[in-house]
């Protein structure tokens, strides 16, 4: 077993025990609460488990997508409606490669980093092309979200028929507010115990530095991180969004990246899209003729409250980690003892039978 799978299988088991305890509590409370909040909780568990197991739950039928190649390249940043857009693209039959797909294929991460270096330093697209071919071979037809969005232009260069979808919010201030908020909410992934359990989660920032010369920030204990328990940390001040000048830097990056896309791509290859506009512009841009869909509401997923639940679950799992591990060890011991006593009694039976 390699380093990663050892960590993930151990964590999965620990999380499963924790999840069972929590689900028991949730089931008890369900009588008073509505169905909705429970399914949100279940969804949160699924997210956490998927995340640790690095399994992407949003696969579509592999056969239907295979060999179509990359068709849609997401250039929008996280918190610009990418999750709702992902849902929409899945409805249109796409298989989407995003941050979770990068984590699922952890062997891709060093390749993305190498591809970024080669592209930035020598405009050498060899590694990116090889990686793209491997991704396409798995049936992916779209990329979305930060940090894959940073590759939108070189990927567009490699696939001249692919279209670039730049998701945006109403304005950059609003986008940054949401990005900062979600970084506060989910930034704990770089803290204990998650950094022990899932490894370093800093490749998005590394890619940002390589491709966009974005200065590296470092969230440190105790300035940015609060440590209520030796194994449990809370990131109260993520340096990447909270340090002085970071807001201006992020907004400048967003504006500059959009401008570069507009200058590089012909208008029919680029759509600047706000999910509030609904299906119509997206369907037109992708050349999909579907009147029924056009009338429907655009998907609205991954709102803040479901991530809040994910965070809550992760905090409970993290704070109680020694308890989950002890419970797991205890049950393993009970099962082993039960097995031993079964073997001993079976042996005794055999002996008795022989004597008789
Ligand atoms: C581009 O990069 C690859 C490795 O990533 C290397 O093998 C190749 O020689 C490079 N091409 C040029 C023209 O430098």
TrEMBL record:
Residues 1-27 form the signal peptide. This is Sulfotransferase domain-containing protein. It comes from Fistulifera solaris (Oleaginous diatom). Pfam families: Sulfotransfer_4. It comes from the Eukaryota. Keywords: Signal. InterPro entries: P-loop_NTPase, Sulfotransfer_4.
């Amino acid at each position: 077993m390699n380093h990663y799978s050892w960590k993930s299988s151990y964590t999965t088991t620990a999380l499963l025990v924790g999840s069972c305890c929590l689900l028991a509590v949730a089931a008890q409370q369900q009588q008073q609460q509505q169905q909705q909040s429970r399914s949100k909780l279940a969804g949160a568990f699924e997210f956490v488990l998927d995340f640790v197991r690095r399994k992407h739950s949003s696969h579509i039928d592999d056969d239907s997508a295979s060999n179509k190649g990359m068709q849609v390249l997401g250039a929008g940043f996280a918190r610009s409606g990418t999750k709702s857009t992902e849902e929409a693209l899945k409805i249109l039959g796409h298989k989407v490669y995003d941050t979770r797909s990068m984590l699922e294929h952890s062997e891709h991460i060093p390749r993305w980093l190498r591809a970024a270096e080669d592209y930035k330093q020598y405009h050498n697209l060899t590694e990116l092309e090889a990686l793209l071919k491997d991704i396409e071979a798995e049936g992916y037809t779209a990329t979305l979200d930060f940090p894959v969005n940073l590759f939108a232009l070189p990927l567009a260069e490699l696939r001249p028929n692919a279209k670039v979808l730049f998701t945006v919010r109403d304005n950059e201030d609003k986008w940054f507010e949401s990005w900062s908020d979600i970084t506060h909410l989910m930034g704990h992934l770089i803290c204990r115990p998650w950094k022990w359990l899932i490894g370093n989660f800093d490749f998005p920032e590394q890619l940002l530095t390589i491709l966009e010369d974005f200065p590296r920030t470092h969230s440190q204990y105790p300035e940015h991180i609060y440590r209520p328990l030796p194994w449990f940390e809370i990131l109260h001040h993520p340096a990447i969004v909270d340090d002085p000048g970071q807001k201006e830097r992020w907004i400048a990056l967003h504006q500059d990246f959009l401008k570069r896309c507009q200058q590089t791509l012909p208008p029919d290859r680029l759509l600047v899209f706000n999910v509030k506009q609904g299906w119509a512009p997206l369907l037109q841009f992708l050349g999909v003729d579907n009147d029924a869909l056009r009338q429907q509401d655009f998907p609205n997923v991954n709102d803040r409250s479901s991530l809040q639940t994910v965070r809550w679950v992760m905090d409970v799992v993290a704070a109680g980690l020694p308890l989950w591990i002890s419970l797991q060890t205890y049950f393993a011991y009970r099962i082993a003892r039960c097995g031993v006593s079964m073997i001993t009694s079976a042996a005794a039976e055999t002996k008795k039978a022989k004597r008789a």
